[in-house]
Amino acid sequence: MCKFLVGIALVLVAGFAQADRIRDLTSVQGVRENSLIGYGLVVGLDGTGDQTTQTPFTTQTLNNMLSQLGITVPTGTNMQLKNVAAVMVTAQYPAFGRQGQNIDVVVSSMGNAKSLRGGTLLMTPLKGVDSQVYALAQGNILVGGAGAAAGGSSVQVNQLNGGRITNGAIIERELPTQFGSGNTINLQLNQDDFGMAQQIADTINRRSGYGNATALDSRTVQIRTPSGNSNQVRLLADIQNMEVNVTPQEAKVIINSRTGSVVMNREVTLDTCAVAQGNLSVTVNRQAQVSQPDTPFAGGQTVVTPQTQIDLRQSGGALQSIRSSASLNNVVRALNALGASPIELMSILQSMQSAGCLRAKVEII
After folding, report:
1. 3-state secondary structure at position 141
2. What is the pLDDT of residues 93-125, one digit of tens each?
3. Domains and CATH numbers, the chain
4. Pfam families given for it (predicted)?
5. Any idea which of 251-255, 268-272, 308-312 has the lowest mean pLDDT?
6. Cα–Cα distance for residue pair 228/205, rounded to 1 Å
7. How far is CA 134 from CA 36, 142, 172, 192, in A?
8. Are strands 252-256 and 358-359 parallel, antiparallel or unpaired?
9. What's the number of CA atoms in the CB half-sphere (13 Å) around residue 205?
10. What is the per-residue DSSP string for 259-278?
């Protein structure tokens, strides 16, 4: 009976444990996207294009395009165009992209065009970092914003100087790939974690027939495939679906000094401390309380439980007291209730870290 109850308890604990798939924690080294960029023209705008007197590159580009089509514009001609705009076109070349495959492109105005709504992108070569053309883009632009103007008044929703063309580019050149040519596969963790890297390697090694995994560092796990296994795609698909119990994350507080926002994870805790910021004071006190069984020989055990009390005072305001575990979430909630500004909150957190009572790493971005 005892073994049966212990087995049920282990099953329940395993059910509550948080597990993620390896595919959600890692990426395959060498399997990534590549950025493409190009310069082109958008035509067919309803009088919302570039003012050519202020954007001479638009006129120059148009003259070059017309000359390639056999049309010669007389020298010195001042073309007052309103339906043409110079744009930059960007795209992401997918991993294992094949010739003839369609990809999405993003079109952004680089002049003083008012809107790209209703415009058509002319054929634009997209180049990589090596200045080689890998795709050709062309098509009608879809702009998510909207705007109207009348009588000197105008209203606008979202951005009008940028849009997207779904499947607007065709891949013309393929990138060489080394995937599957060797007997090793490297998995790169999304975050540096020695414990997680070792745990992923142990999970793979516990499964027979999936190669020998070794954690090289906190970011890389190397898998040596079996000598007789040539299908690395099936092998990698099985490995990515393996589940790994997520280890506790590093306690971290992220402070954005530009927006005044503070973000923390659940591992952040506080130790006993007292903080005074202007007319605001915070006191965190932790004491140990011993809990004993009510009756002797009842089979109970003596347990020591920490009791934490957080007091906040503000001159001219009410006194609030919070009794809970020493978590930063409760302190932040209490500070917000007293009206502490984001600047005050950031100063308090930095002071707590300097004093050693904030059990977390503070990162300012």
Report:
1. coil
2. 999 999 999 999 999 999 888 889 989 999 999
3. 34-144+156-171 (no CATH), 180-245 (3.30.70), 252-290+304-364 (no CATH)
4. FlgI
5. 308-312
6. 17
7. 8, 23, 5, 34
8. unpaired
9. 12
10. TTEEEE-TT-EE-SEEEEET
